[in-house]
Design goal:
40% of the residues lie in helices and 21% in strands. It is α+β, with helices and mostly antiparallel strands. The structure holds one RNA strand.
RNA sequence: GGAGAGGUGGCUGAGCGGCUUAAAGCACCGGUUUGCUAAACCGGCGUACUGGUAUAAAGCCGGUACCGGGGGUUCGAAUCCCCCCCUCUCCGCCA
């Protein structure tokens, strides 16, 4: 969410941002509704002032100890006169009240309209964001690691996993429908291993480990920017008016919502592993094979809440990106970083860097990480604030990035570490988390 | 799920129709004084929307709303009525 004052003064900028982000919103209507809203509020305020002042006078006229009452008596008014004046005033205020009533209804209607329009206004992208229509126009920033060459026929992770008895997609589908899977033996171990490694690394870097709910209230989904626009991507538990989150970013970022923090508490760095639920609506037929795009996965997510300072946000954006890159380097996986173009940005994101890891079966880099900065966008929605050094209340800035997401990261790990025999070497850093296992063989299942 | 008790500013807590402009205390900020830490005294101290004015910024002067949320009664509601939510205690169920 943006400041309405900013929107009023920069309508063209917002329209351009929406066009670049390929988000539809009606800025002109918002500005019209805003003008109406302010007009109604002014009228209502004036009437309420009249009502309050009159009401107070009645109270005092009826109170013999009040100054107004004494003054009236001193001016020679009889008790009957005073009583009549109060009654006269009371009937006048009944008229005022009759005017207030319908205006209050207008106010409610207009405010509701105003808010629902406000929810749809996008955060303008940073100037460094390339303008483009979709992910094909993302701009590569750097490649790290080398894509290895193999002198034997490669298997993809599905074939490998099924032959080793560590991936069983068919039974996952039997239990839960398409885009579901099961892992077994060393597969399940490997899944846990990457998550545990990621948590340990982040704790080493000073992030506070958290355990958070994944079933959250509507306002939390609105606050983080996933609603109302992304509603069809979420699993809803309508009976309880709750939603399953698609990422721990949601509960972590909203953790301090509605609070006014002190500046000394910032930055707040949090990390959590959580299940992530995604309906993948509109992705029918896309990435159907294997573990790439599924409905439920686990992800270690890093979130930073910092001061309202763009330079500081930028610095932390680099930091969270470096955290993820460091982990991929430890896992010896080749990847590239892309500057995500405007059309591929979310509503609230100022800028986003995706990390794409090499996946032989796709013969391309596939997205495994997504590092975003939001400036105030989420904080405004969440009423997440702090008192700065001048004791002024300001909105925080928020950022987040994947640390690791499983099972997607298992795709490059399995495919890049396969041997001619169809075994999989376990990367060194994961071995301690795999009960010392160095190679996954069929026998190891 | 059932019964009871509660939800008031950053915190504690009073108020239960109009001298409430939400008391008081703590915390916090500014000042005075005492050679330091501390104490005492004086002053300040919420959030949101909004009008005016001014500026390089800050600000200054007003208005309205907000005492868990939403309705209602009333000239007037933190206070009375209705609905909902949440917390606590006990019971039930349960990993």
């Amino acid at each position: 969410m943006l400041d309405i004052k900013f929107i009023r003064e920069n309508a063209e900028l917002i329209k351009q941002a929406a066009a670049n982000k390929r988000i539809s919103c009606d800025v002109d209507q918002l500005i019209a509704v805003d003008a109406e809203r302010r007009k109604v509020q002014q009228d209502l305020d004036a009437l309420r002032t009249k009502s309050r002042e009159g009401g107070e006078r009645i109270g005092q006229l009826r109170n013999p100890k009040s100054k107004i009452h004494k003054d009236a008596v001193a001016a020679g008014k009889s008790a009957a006169d005073i009583k009549a004046e109060a009654e006269q005033l009371q009937s006048e205020l009944n008229d005022v009240k009759a005017q207030i009533k319908p205006l209050e209804e207008d106010d409610r209607r207009v405010v509701e309209q105003f808010e629902s329009l406000m929810w749809t206004i996008p955060q303008p992208p940073a100037s460094e964001v390339p303008v483009g229509k979709d992910d094909t126009e993302n701009v590569e920033i750097r490649k790290v690691g080398t894509v290895p060459e193999f002198d034997f026929e490669l298997k993809d992770h599905v074939e490998l996993g099924e032959q080793l008895g560590i991936i069983d997609i068919e039974r996952g589908v039997k239990l839960s429908g398409s885009r579901n899977y099961t892992l077994k033996g060393a597969g399940a171990l490997l899944y846990q291993a990457v998550l545990r490694l990621a948590m340990d690394r982040m704790i080493d870097r000073g992030f506070t480990p958290m355990q958070v709910p994944v079933l959250v209230r509507e306002e939390v989904m609105y606050g983080t920017g996933y609603f109302p626009t992304g509603r069809d991507q979420a699993y809803l538990c309508e009976r309880d008016e709750m939603s399953l989150v698609g990422t721990a970013e949601v509960p972590l970022t909203a953790f301090h919502s509605g609070e006014i923090l002190s500046e000394e508490e910032l930055p707040i760095k949090m990390v959590a592993v959580s299940p992530c639920f995604r309906r993948e609506a509109g992705a029918a037929g896309k990435d159907t094979r294997g573990l790439y795009r599924i409905h439920l996965f686990d992800k270690v997510e890093q979130v930073i809440i910092c001061k309202n300072d763009e330079a500081e946000s930028l610095k932390f954006h680099d930091e969270i990106l470096a955290n993820a890159e460091g982990l991929l380097q430890d896992l010896e996986l080749p990847y590239r970083v892309v500057n995500v173009c405007s059309g591929d940005l979310g509503q609230g994101q100022v800028q986003k860097f995706d990390i794409e890891t090499w996946m032989p079966s796709r013969n391309s880099y596939g997205e495994t990480h997504s590092a975003s900065r939001f400036y105030e966008f989420q904080a405004r929605r969440l009423k997440l604030r702090y008192k700065d050094a001048n004791r002024k209340t300001r909105f925080c800035h928020t950022l987040n990035n994947t640390v690791i997401a499983a099972p997607r990261i298992l795709i490059p790990i399995l495919e890049l570490n396969q041997t001619p025999e169809g075994y999989v070497r376990v990367p060194k850093v994961l071995q301690p988390y795999m009960r010392g296992m160095e190679v996954i063989t069929a026998e190891a299942k």
